[in-house]
Specification:
Pfam families: Beta-barrel_RND_2, BSH_RND, RND-MFP_C. This protein has 408 residues and is of the alpha+beta class. It has four helices and 24 strands.
């Protein structure tokens, strides 16, 4: 009995002993450990990354250029086009197709739109038929004249031989001369019909609207199916133009200067223009002419200013501010060269003068050649180009290639 009990105990499953691990479980365990180690390394690298240094910057301004010349007068005005046209058809008609869109460039003679040419086409066909009929009549009269001339010649020989009467010969000559006159009239009719056909061709061509000069389309005024006319004959239901084109090469600036200050402005005077849309962009310009009349109501005189720089950003009707600059005198002292930067942007590093120039989100350390002290600024003869931004009061921790962000 005891032996049987002992045997049963040996057959009992011991649940306290853990089962042996599966063959693939150790591999997954090592993969999880490796992923955790990589994540920990990435977090540590992100936390230990170099922080961007907050800095203040200022632009380097060129010396000895138009931007640093003294302004004798400031005024405001607008960009205008000297060559602008609202293109219309020569005749009244219904629009069949419009081939332009705003912003599209067109060349001189390019087709902008076509009108429905039904009436003009039918009239042209009629005149073409008349030309063919007149030419056929000329051919028939020429054949008859040839026969009449031969008959008159034959009868003339017979009259000399007294084989026919003189009256028959005279009748043949009269018939020949009549046909000759009819042929001359028919030839003139051919010419008249040809002229009418040419006029009809012009009528057909008038249904095609072409660009009078090269330019850019600034407005599209008509759509297919609308009636257009060179005259406003239908009130608000009739268009007077297909579109407006502007010659961008003719852009200039018009400003109004008060009568009290117009004496400061002279032709060929240098001007610095600034568009309201791009306040940091200085555009070189020059006075073209002072319009010799004044506005009584506003007490102003209009001044035309030429733009020396052609750029697609300059478009008509843009607001602009202009500064009339002093004209350079031959005996004037030479202006300083280089650029002007804040004096606190120049620091000493490794025994030389350097500045830190902003390049995207980092800085470049550059050696410079300092010049004259200009109040709170400093002249730099070399090392920095106009328009670049330099760090003012750079901290001692700032180095070449340091990550920075501009202080707002």
């Amino acid at each position: 009995m005891n032996a049987s009990a002992e045997l049963l105990k040996e057959l009992r499953i011991d649940r306290r002993t853990p089962p042996p691990p599966a063959p693939g479980s150790r591999r997954w365990l090592w993969i999880v450990i490796a992923v955790l180690v990589l994540l920990g390394a990435a977090v540590a690298a992100w936390m230990l990354r170099p922080q961007a240094i907050e800095v203040q910057t200022a632009p380097a301004v060129a010396l000895g250029e138009a931007g640093s010349s003294a302004s004798v007068l400031d005024a405001s005005g607008y960009v205008v086009a000297r060559r602008m046209a609202t293109v219309s058809a020569k005749i009244t008609g219904k629009v069949r197709e419009v081939m332009i869109e705003e912003g599209m460039r067109v060349e001189e003679g390019q087709v902008m739109a076509t009108l429905d040419p039904i009436d003009a086409g039918a009239q042209r066909d009629l005149y073409a038929s008349q030309v063919q009929a007149a030419r056929s009549q000329v051919a028939g009269l020429q054949a008859q004249l040839t026969q009449a001339g031969a008959e008159a010649t034959r009868l003339q020989a017979l009259v000399g031989q007294q084989l026919v009467s003189r009256s028959q010969f005279d009748q043949a000559v009269a018939q020949r001369d009549s046909l000759r006159a009819q042929l001359d009239t028919a030839q003139r009719n051919v010419q008249v019909a040809g002229n009418q056909l040419a006029i009809a061709d012009l009528g057909v061509d008038n249904n095609i609207v072409r660009a009078p000069f090269s330019g850019v389309v600034t407005a599209k005024a008509a759509q297919p199916g609308e009636i257009v006319s060179p005259l406003s004959a239908g009130g608000g239901f009739t268009r007077t133009g297909i579109g407006t084109i502007v010659d961008m090469e003719s852009l200039e600036i018009e400003v109004e200067v008060g009568e009290a200050f117009i004496g400061r402005v002279q032709p060929k005077m240098p001007v610095e223009a600034t568009l309201n849309a791009y306040p940091e962009w200085k555009i070189p310009a020059e006075v073209i002419a002072i319009v010799p009349t004044a506005d009584r109501g506003k007490a102003t005189v209009k001044v035309r200013v030429a733009i020396k720089t052609r750029d697609p950003r300059i478009v008509p009707e843009m607001g602009v501010r202009v500064s009339f600059l002093e004209q350079a005198r031959p005996d004037a002292p030479q202006k300083p060269q280089g650029v002007r930067v804040p004096a606190n942007a120049v620091v000493e590093r490794e025994g030389g003068s350097v500045v830190f120039v902003l390049a995207e989100d980092a800085v470049q350390q550059r050696s410079v050649t300092p010049g004259l002290a200009l109040n709170a600024d400093r002249q730099l003869l070399a090392g920095v180009r106009p328009g670049e931004r330099v760090v003012t009061s750079p901290p001692d921790t700032l180095r070449d290639g340091s990550k920075v962000k501009e202080r707002s």
